[in-house]
Each structure stands twice: as C-alpha cells, then as structure tokens.
Amino acid sequence: MNKNSSNIMALAPNTSNKRETVCIFGTGDFGRALGHKMIQSGYPVVYGSRSTQISNLIPKDAEVLSHAEAAQKAAIIIIAIQRQHYNFLIPLAEILHGKVLVDISNNLKLNQYPESNAEYLAQLLPGSRVVKAFNTVSAWALQSGTLDASRQVFVCGDDVEAKQMVMNIVRALSLTPLDKGSLLAAQEIENYPLQLFPIWKFPIFLSLGLTAFFFFYCLALDVIYTYIYERNNFSFFIAITIPNRVCPVMALILLALVYLPGIFAAIIQLYRGTKYRRFPDWLDKWMLCRKQLGLIALAFASLHVVFTLVTPMRAFVSWRTSKGIISQVLNNKTEPLSNTNAWISDSYLALGILGFFLFVLLGITSLPSVSNNVNWREFRFVQSKLGYLALILCTAHTLVYGGKWFLSPSAYKWYLPNIYILALIVPCAVLVVKFVLIFPCVDKPLTQIRQGWERNPKHSEQSNYIINKSAV
Amino acid sequence: MNKNSSNIMALAPNTSNKRETVCIFGTGDFGRALGHKMIQSGYPVVYGSRSTQISNLIPKDAEVLSHAEAAQKAAIIIIAIQRQHYNFLIPLAEILHGKVLVDISNNLKLNQYPESNAEYLAQLLPGSRVVKAFNTVSAWALQSGTLDASRQVFVCGDDVEAKQMVMNIVRALSLTPLDKGSLLAAQEIENYPLQLFPIWKFPIFLSLGLTAFFFFYCLALDVIYTYIYERNNFSFFIAITIPNRVCPVMALILLALVYLPGIFAAIIQLYRGTKYRRFPDWLDKWMLCRKQLGLIALAFASLHVVFTLVTPMRAFVSWRTSKGIISQVLNNKTEPLSNTNAWISDSYLALGILGFFLFVLLGITSLPSVSNNVNWREFRFVQSKLGYLALILCTAHTLVYGGKWFLSPSAYKWYLPNIYILALIVPCAVLVVKFVLIFPCVDKPLTQIRQGWERNPKHSEQSNYIINKSAV
Amino acid sequence: MNKNSSNIMALAPNTSNKRETVCIFGTGDFGRALGHKMIQSGYPVVYGSRSTQISNLIPKDAEVLSHAEAAQKAAIIIIAIQRQHYNFLIPLAEILHGKVLVDISNNLKLNQYPESNAEYLAQLLPGSRVVKAFNTVSAWALQSGTLDASRQVFVCGDDVEAKQMVMNIVRALSLTPLDKGSLLAAQEIENYPLQLFPIWKFPIFLSLGLTAFFFFYCLALDVIYTYIYERNNFSFFIAITIPNRVCPVMALILLALVYLPGIFAAIIQLYRGTKYRRFPDWLDKWMLCRKQLGLIALAFASLHVVFTLVTPMRAFVSWRTSKGIISQVLNNKTEPLSNTNAWISDSYLALGILGFFLFVLLGITSLPSVSNNVNWREFRFVQSKLGYLALILCTAHTLVYGGKWFLSPSAYKWYLPNIYILALIVPCAVLVVKFVLIFPCVDKPLTQIRQGWERNPKHSEQSNYIINKSAV
C-alpha cells in the first residue's frame, strides 16, 4: 500500500476539511510535487507566481495568485525558489512579517555559501519565522509515492512553534520529521543531501589502499617470483588465488582495527588517570567509524568464504588433484591418512566457520532495525563480547592455517615474510593488550576511572566537558 | 520487553488519570481486545451492547451499558460491529451527532461493496465525524502484545481534529498511526489487509512463467535429446543440473529487466523532447515493481550460488572426476595444465563472485531500515551505479562461461540455441543501449530534458501534470 | 548525519527560543550529558546542585543554582540522582508540588527494591507528578550522538499531561518515546536495561542442552566406538564431521519445535471445544518464544550449510577420494554410474537447498523493518505456509539422506539408533498431526471454535477473559 497509494489516494473534499491553507512560492518541479502531495493530504494550496498563466502543470485543485496575494492567504509559505532569487522577497517583507517561511532549497556543492540558505533568508526577512525542511526529499519520491529512500525530513528553526507547524505538515504527508535544533543546523541539513557516504570515506580509502598494497605484495611473491625462478606462468592466480589471499588478510586486519581504538582509549585513560579529558582527534574520528570498518571487514570475510568454497571448481585445482592421484598410482604407493594433517585441516576450517558465523551475527545486529530492538547492555554484549570472540576465532583460524609457514625458510621468498605473518601483527597485538587489560590489577583502576574517579582531580579543571568515548 | 510487556503492564489507577473515556460498540473478539489494550493504556472504557449480561468475557475494569447510555459517556465511539448491522445505529443518530465514530471494520473480499464501510457509515450518520482506523491490526496481536507483524495503523477521515484524537489513541497503544488523508482513502485502507503481496504478483508470475519455459527447454535439450540420440539416462539432471542452469539465466534476465524500463523511459523522453508527459501505463507499472524484480533476481542468483557450490558433493560429479582420472592413468598420459583453461575457469568464477557480492549489497540496501538511513544521492549511487556494475559483471560472467559454446555446432541440438545465448539477449541489449545513452551527444539533451527543458513546449499544454518516473 | 551531527549542531540562540526551561537535579555523568543534549535542542537548562562550585564540567550555557532556586525556574525537573539520596527531596516538597519530576534512575540488579524507584519517588512527594523516562538511554550514546543502539525511550506515568510534556522533550532530542502506561509499569521499565535477551534465554539453554547431548552421542558412536572396535583414530571428527551431524539435527528439531505448540493449541481447543480458556502456562511461554527458536534453528542450518560446503577442502575427504580412485585403478575396474545413487545424491541436495532457501526467507521476513511493511495476512502466509513448506522440505532432505541407514543393521552401533532417526521423530510427528488437522472433518470444527463458537458454552463462565494465542 505504501508503494502506490498516492496514485489512488483521493483529494480531500472541501466541505469538512479544517487544514490550514499552505502557500507555495515557485512553480518548479519540487514546488509542484509538494503542492500535489499536500492537496492529497487535505491541505488547500495556493501558489504564488510571477505569471499566473503557466497553470497547466500545476495541480488542478490549487489556486495560482501573485506572490503578495498568495502570501496573505496562508500562515505557512514554502519558498520553492532558488537562493539567487531570494532578493525579490524583500519588497514583500511586510506581508511576510510573522509568517512561517519554509526554506526547502539545496545547494550544488558542500558549503557553497558562507551561511546556509535558510540563515540567509532569515537575515533578509528578520520579521519572518524561518524553518528549514523538506530539502532531503526528492520531487520524484514525493510524487510517485514510492519513497524507497529515506522518509526522514530534517527540520530546524529558531521558532519552536513554527517548527511544530511544519513538523505537523511533514507527518501529514506520511513522512517522519526529525527535529535538528536551531537554525544554525541548517548548514548541516543543506549539506546532507550532497553527501556521499561521508563516514564511509575514510574506511573505504583505507581498505582500498591496504588492498592494493597486499595485492601487489602477493603478485610479486606468488606470480612474478614463481615466473622468474621457477619458470611457471601462474598469471591466472590474479583472478582467484591472490584475491583469496588478500581478502582474509584484509578482513582480519580491519576487524582488529575495530577493537584497536578501544585499547588505545583504555591506555590513555589509565595513563591520564581521568576520563574527563578529550581524546586526541584522530582517536575520536577512528572511534566513530568503527561500525563501518567492521562492515567492510565483513564484506572481505564474505568474499573470502565464497572464494574458498569455489576452490574445487577451479580448473587448476582439479588438475593439481588429478596430478597428485596419478603420481601416487604411477609410483604404486598409496599415501596413508595423516592424522595431524586431518586435524589441522579440519580445525582451521571449523575455526574459520565459527568466526565467520559470529561475524555475520555482528553484522545483522548492526542493522538499524535490529539494533533498535535491543537495550544498551545487549548491544554491548553482542558488539564487545561476541566481537572479541570473533576476533579470537579468526586469529586462531589464520594461525592454524598459516602456522606451518612461519618457520619454513622456503616461505621467505626474496626475504619477505609471507602475507599471513603480516596479517597477524595487528590482531595479535590487540588480543595481547586486551588480555593484559582484563587482569584485575589493571581492570580495577580502569573501571574506577570510567565511573568518574580521578587520580589527579586537578586535571579536570583544565578540560572542557566531554564524556570520553571509550565507554564502549 | 516489547514482547510480553502487555501481560505484565498494570492497569492505570483511576485517581490521577486524565484520559478521556472511550466507548466501544460491540463485544466481539476485536472489540474486547481493543478495550483491554485501551484500559491497559489508561483509558476508561465503556461498552455499548444489546445485552448487558454477557459481561464475563469483557475486561473487568470496563463498564457495560446500553448503546445509548454508553455513547453519551464518551466523545469517541469505536464501532466494532459488522457493516450489515450498521442500520441499527440510525435511531441513535441524535446521540451520535458530533461524536467521533471510529470504523474498524474489514471486508471479506476486495471491493466487496461499492463504497467503503467507513463512507457508508458517514452517509448513514451525516452528523458524526467518521474516522477509519485499526482495521489493519489483528485482535490476537493486540492482545498478546507480540505484534511481530506491522505496528502501523492507517488512519483516514474528513475531520482533521477527529483524526488527531484517534491518532493520539493509536500512539498511546504503542502503535504507529499513518495519516492517509480524507475518508475517500477508506476503500484502499479496507482493501489493505486483504491483499497478498499485490506488487509482487506481476514479478512472481513473470518469474514462474519464464522459469517453466526455461526448465522445459533444458529438459528437452539436456535429458530428452540425450536419451533419444545418445541413449544416456540423465533423468537425475532434473534435481540439480537443470535448476542450476535455469536459476542463473533467470537471475540475469530479471536483473536486466530491472534496468530496461529506465532505458525505455530515456528513449521516450528523448523522442518526445519533454518530461512533462505521462509514460505509457505498462511502463509506469513496470517501473514501480523494479525493486521486486531485483529481489527475485537476487533469490535466483543465491540459489545458483548454492547449487554451484554443492557440485563437488554430487555422486555424478565425483563419478565423472574418477572416470577422467582413471582414463588418464590407463592411457598412461598426464594432461598438462592448460593456462587458457585455468584463466577461463578462474575468471568466470571471480566475475560471478564479484557480481553476486554487489547483488547482495543491492539487496541489503533495499531493506527498509537501511534505505531509511541513506540520502537520495547515496540511494541512487548504490541502486544505479552499483546496480549497473553488477549487471556488467554478471553478463561478463555468463559470456566467459558460455562463450565457448557460441560457435560450437554441437551446442545447437535440434537447431535450438543453447540457453546461455537466450539469457544474454536482454542484458546485452540493455548494456549496449545504456552505453549509447551515456555518450555526451545523447546524455546532454537528456539531462536538459530531465531538468525541465522542452524541445517543443506546446506539448505540455495537452498533458496533465506528472513527474516522469524515469528520474531514477 | 545521524552519526556525528550532535558534535556540530549549534546551540540555539536565546533570542527567539520559546522552549521551556528544564531543571536537572544532579551533576553526574548522565545529568550532564542530558543537559548538554537539551541545550543543543534549544532548551534552557538550569542545574540544581548542593555546591554551585563544580561548574567546570557542566555545559557552558547551563546555569547552576541551589536545588530550591533551580526547581522554581522550571516546570519539569529531571531527577538525576540515585535512589538512596531521594530523601533529601522531602524538604523541597512544597516547591516541587505540582511539578513534573522525571525519574531517570536505574538499579544494579533486577527487582532490587520492592517498589520501583519512580513509585518510591511518587510516594515521597505525593504532590508531584512523577514520570519515568530516559533510563534506557546511555549517557555515552546521548553525548556522542552515535546512538547505534536503541533510540526508544520508554515513558510511563499516572499524569497524562505530564507524560505528554516529557514525551515532547524526548522527541525534541531526536529520540522515540514509547508510552508504556501508568506508573505501575515503572518496575518493568527499570528492569529493561538490566535484561540480557530474556526471551532468548529458554531457547538458548534448550539448544545448548540438546547440542551437548547430540554431540556426546555422536562422539560415542563415531569416534569412541570406531576406536574401540575398528582401531581407527578418527578424533579429528570432533572439528567438522560431528558438528556437521549435530547442526542439521538441531536445526530440524528446533524448526519442528516452532510448529509443535500450534499443534498442541489446536488439540487443546478441539478437546475443550472453546477458545475462551487460557492455555497452560508452559504453552503460552513456548508460543511467545517461537520466533527465537526459529532463528536459532536458522543459525544451525546456516552452520550446517557452510560445514557441508567445505567438505571437499578437508584433508580427510581428499585422502578418501584418492584412495577410492586408486583402488579402482589397481583393481582395474571402473565403477559405472549408478543412476539410483545419482538420483539420491542430487535430490537430497536439491531438497536441502530449497528448504534452506525458504528458511532464510522466513528469517528475512522476521527482521523488524521487513515485518513492519507486510500486513497480517502476508505475515501469516510467510510464517505459516512457507514455514511448513520449509519443514516438509527439510524433513524430506533428512529422510532421503539418512534413509539408507534405517534398515541397515550396521547403523545400530551399541544397539543405539543413528542420530538421523532421532532427528526425525519430532518433525515427522508434527507433520503427521498437522496433516490430520487439515482434514475437513477436523478443520471445520476448529475453524468454528477459533471464530468464537463454543461446544459447551458453560465453560466460558469460569474463565477469565483471554484470547487464545493459537490464532496464528
């Protein structure tokens, strides 16, 4: 019903409708779409336009008047015109005095103007009550009623009553208003629709960088080295073998990077003896993108799982298997089952499966609709306890799998360590330090600090108020 | 807590409670469940009933009176009786004058009556303020407090104030009201609980039809042909081999069908030179079910992945592998590794894995709670850019895998093309036309048209107002 | 934007702000975090504190006064102090008369005190209007603005108007208020943040118990028996082989346990001839945790799928395969393809894949954001019809896979039945009884009973009002 309702939904009859008239300045795409939707929701709509002629595109039930006439008919005026043309509102200042002006404009790039459009409008017309709203909704989504994307409408403004009036309209249009505070938030709201996954930016660039590094590292050791010294052309390793070496390494390192800032925070708090001082900026930023790092790690882990599972389907692998069996036959010697090998192979597979299972569980609980249904204690239990368990299992998986290469000199081609050794540095460091931190002699003072105790209370005098973000 | 709270939740003491009394006409299942829930939320409830005897099933704290007496005690009266019995309300018209009547009735089939029950009620009692609500909630869900299904309550009515009163009750019962406009929307709201995935209907029937066609196509070529001409009984292909041929074909075709209507829309807009004219109806409908087509395509792709991954576990496959190895041994000839084969096998696997990975990403972002947290630009980036990338990867996967059969005459059993060739027609067409459309000489006028420019402004005079749905 | 907005969000200018002053008693972590957030949302905040000196940690724009002075400035007072110190409020009773007191306290363990903190506060200050709120939100989440966990704020109180005022503040802080009724609900709300997945407890303990039992059962039959009687050390079976036997058994049994209570309910209703009597308590509880049982079953099924798919990668399996091929070569006899084996192997794989596919579909529709978008009929269709289909497919998968062992005497080591036979008892029983229940001669009276018909209406006289939970 959500999908196509607006097409069917009837216009409200005039008789018993008590909704207040809304005025819209501007007859562009968005102004028309918004007006159409409002009429459907029972609001009488009047357009203010320079020319009252171009009425054929405007919703049938709407009136079109001059700006001054239209403004007089309504308490709320939606300014569906571009910032460059705001000047023409100045002569109307008297009529607009006391009215609620809804700024719905967007810019073409981030921070295009020194002040937000809504603040600029409020400066031009100091007697009006300016509210920022609707800029995050697309005209297309409004009109088609599909709204696959967000239904959230961010609202801000200095006048609480005006904001309430606009939020009521938002609710009547089946959208969800979200109060973002005073008009100073308008800049941020105007930047919002221009953003392309801002908190994902750092984790994604980090992952791309590391992935490229490990890819070329493997390429050098597995393809180029083999070609030069063993005359084997294994260029097809680029398609599956190397990605399947890079993916698990990336997954493990990124998962460890999710838990590393918490370790740093604990050490800093222990060292300072107080939680009432701001963390360094890089640590704050790192902590805010832990969820993203974790989800990218999960993506790499999933790719690793699928890449591994297709192994038996690869031409190279079936050729290698056949070769092994044929050589056994020709040498007339059947290899016995090595119990150690069976144990190693089965246990690294089992560790990997369990680790991946917990990892997926973490991913599912980070879905907004799931995390909304758990309390704080449950959320911390899953993200912290189960998260560390997943890290331990994945590290053990890598250790058991790659263990045999650590001491074998043939694994050090060009004196470079195998990629498994590189992958284990960060996770092992995190786990070792975490292990130290849960010792009672370290854990007790840390818990005290986090409950507000200060080793040296003078410190707090210098600090601004901030709750340290290491609480998780 | 959401789950079992209502069982524990205490009834409000009478002393300080300021909620207004609610009257319920009818003591059936739903009337009782609603009354019970309202009492829990602090509303005094009075039942209107023909007989005041059958009180043992009614919530303890509720009063039971005659209809007239009960109605006088409350401003809001919930009509929990069936449409057939609405007539008996006519004698009460005077008492009900000005009261808010909440119609909660449902019908047994879609569009059972010419007008909705709520409109019928409003006609019978023109002096009352009728509001449609609560019909989408089940008595069982209300009572048990589990509410695993939807918490949304659609509300509509001509009187805004009456609607607000009802929506406040909805909120007090921990449900989410959704304002659907005037009483004309009641028909749609009454049809809603009777619907069984209406927007899924066309995509599912299309998929079933195509699946059946491809299944019998494969059955003819792979099982029947082989049986007739080669005397091999491969009937067990029905279980895995053929489904694993049909699934990828379906996934690829359906994914291409997601992007085909956008192509059509662009061509139509370019041809017409304006976006201010309605698309043909079939295109409109097609565009509204793109998400469903995409999700069904994802289901087929997932099945294809699992069917492929179990391949090495199949008795037939291990028999074929053994046979190959044994024949190599007996002929005393070891086949060398073909670099070309290794490249082909590895690259179609890698392409498929990456395509499927993007496909799953598209599926996750179409989850309501995820798409609610992205802005319009991010949503379009994922659904359009990543979607096309997934289509390209999946098409390449099929091309590399099936490529060797295109030119081989043995692949044309009964002069019919192999199924891979059929699968590639739509996706290749979509990709070729899309490639043409992104050329600057085509893209520039199209962008202008979508921004509102018209080649021949006269056209718009004839058209109704509509924003073309090709904006995505 | 949701993530880091609060850091950037500007404080509201004093000029045009019309929000009412809020007073906060207590300058602890939570009091400060809440005050900070309120100032960001435009509320003037005044702190009541014993000492007005420790002002350096308090938000800059807040005033700090004595308790009495602060209380006089605001209509809403947030009590951010611990229950033990509530006594000191008694001298302020006169000033606090008629004010809205918001109790935000939490306890350290479930049901720590006989009455909830909020009720205790209401007893101490009978003239004040106590509202319970905010206790489910963490100070850290409020301050950092991340709010990855729940945004829901449970609110309860006896005074409707006071509750509305608090809920407006909750909304202004971008949180979602949820009205839980009168102050008697405070105990439950105070227990909420202390809970750790309460409805998951029984399903998880049941699963752990059954898993342990089946694990040791398999260990005895597969590892110990083999070691004693066949002198084979298969200890490495512990890593993959045994888990992959336990997981599918658990998944099947738990899935059957999801549908078993519905069967019991139907039988009880048929026997009693009425739906107006409460089910036994164990059945009620069982029914409320069906979703959790189903999700745990899905987890086991997923593990089974991955454990199965890694089979070809196991050292033991490739050793066994090689041994088989080599023995064929050495005996110079090539085994022909057994059509029956191919059929059995392919069909149990296909049945399992389809069953798992439906199972995953059930899991996805139980995500809160998906189930919110389907109506009651659709939800029942998926959970009941598709659920039974999944159960049938999974049972058939096990029957076809394990079928050959039923009649083979070698499968009965130590006279104990194979684990597959144990696994099939519950699902087969459920399916057989369900099959009986859908016969018209049984289904018709059951449907009548569920629509309210009673065989022996006297019964209802004794019963309290309850809608039986078997409706689903």
From TrEMBL, chains A, B, C:
Location of the Pyrroline-5-carboxylate reductase catalytic N-terminal domain: 21-107
Tell me the GO BP annotations in alphabetical order.
copper ion import; iron ion transport
Cofactor annotation: heme b; FAD
InterPro entries xrefs: Fe3_Rdtase_TM_dom, NAD(P)-bd_dom_sf, P5C_Rdtase_cat_N, STEAP_metalloreductase
Domain Ferric oxidoreductase: where?
Answer: 249-394
Entry-linked SUPFAM superfamilies: NAD(P)-binding Rossmann-fold domains (SSF51735)
Reactions catalysed: 2 Cu(+) + NADP(+) + H(+) = 2 Cu(2+) + NADPH; 2 Fe(2+) + NADP(+) + H(+) = 2 Fe(3+) + NADPH
| GO CC term, one of those recorded | plasma membrane
Compartments (UniProt record): Endosome membrane
Q: How is this protein situated with respect to the membrane?
A: Multi-pass membrane protein
Which keywords does the record carry?
Copper, Endosome, FAD, Flavoprotein, Ion transport, Iron, Iron transport, Membrane, Metal-binding, Oxidoreductase, Transmembrane, Transmembrane helix, Transport
Cite the GO molecular-function annotations of the record: cupric reductase (NADH) activity; ferric-chelate reductase (NADPH) activity; metal ion binding
Q: Give one Pfam family, short name only.
A: F420_oxidored
Similarity-based family: Belongs to the STEAP family.
Its protein name is STEAP4 metalloreductase
Origin organism is: Corvus moneduloides
Q: What is the lineage of its organism?
A: Eukaryota, Metazoa, Chordata, Craniata, Vertebrata
